[in-house]
Amino acid sequence: MTKRKLIPELTLSQNFRLAMTQKGLTFRALARRCKISDDTAYRLGERTPVFVTDQLIKFGKALGFTERQIRDKAAQDRIARKFVYSKKERLYQLVSELIELFYSK
Questions:
Q1: What residues contact residue 43 under an 8 Å CB cut-off, 6+ apart?
Q2: Which CATH architecture is the domain 12-103 placed in?
Q3: pLDDT digits over 73-85, tens only?
Q4: What is the predicted pLDDT for the residue at 29?
Q5: DSSP the chain
Q6: Hey, CA dihedral for 50, 70, 28, 46, is it positive or negative?
Q7: Cα–Cα distance for residue pair 14/89, rounded to 1 Å
Q8: Beta-carbon neighbour count of residue 49 at 10 Å?
Q9: What's the CA angle centered on 17, arms 12 and 21, to 5 degrees?
Q10: 3: which residues sit within 8 A by CB, 6+ positions away?
């Protein structure tokens, strides 16, 4: 399976939906391929995840993304939505706010 590129401007769930459309997959077909419930597949494709779970990794890998891409993009999305769970993520958030403040003047 070839590695699929993430579009940085899109959230992880938006990248998933785009990949599903390009591959012509439905939530039901993807859920069966990943061995997860239809509801879980729908939730992963519609909502930007806060936590990285095994189901999320399976879902992303079935669409051609690597585990590293999924984990990194989920962390970026958390920071962008101001949900931070570690000191490192909080530091990145503060730095981005300072840069934004510096360039706004």
A1: none
A2: Orthogonal Bundle (1.10)
A3: 998 888 777 766 6
A4: 93
A5: -PPPPP-TTS-HHHHHHHHHHHHT--HHHHHHHHT--HHHHHHHHHS--SS--HHHHHHHHHTT--HHHHHHHHHHHHHHTT---SHHHHHHHHHHHHHHHHHT-
A6: positive
A7: 22
A8: 21
A9: 145
A10: 64, 65, 66, 69
Is residue 36 over pLDDT 70?
Answer: yes
Which residue, 26, 30, 27, 34, is CA-closest to 55?
A: 34
CA–CA distance, 44 with 56 (Å, rounded to integer): 7
pLDDT at position 84: 64
Token pair, residue 96, equals 């981005």
Encoded tokens for 12: 């992880």
The answer to whether the CB of 43 falls within 8 A of the CB of 36 is no
- Distance between CA atoms of 1 and 17, rounded to whole angstroms? 18
Whether the per-residue pLDDT at 1 is higher than 60: the answer is no
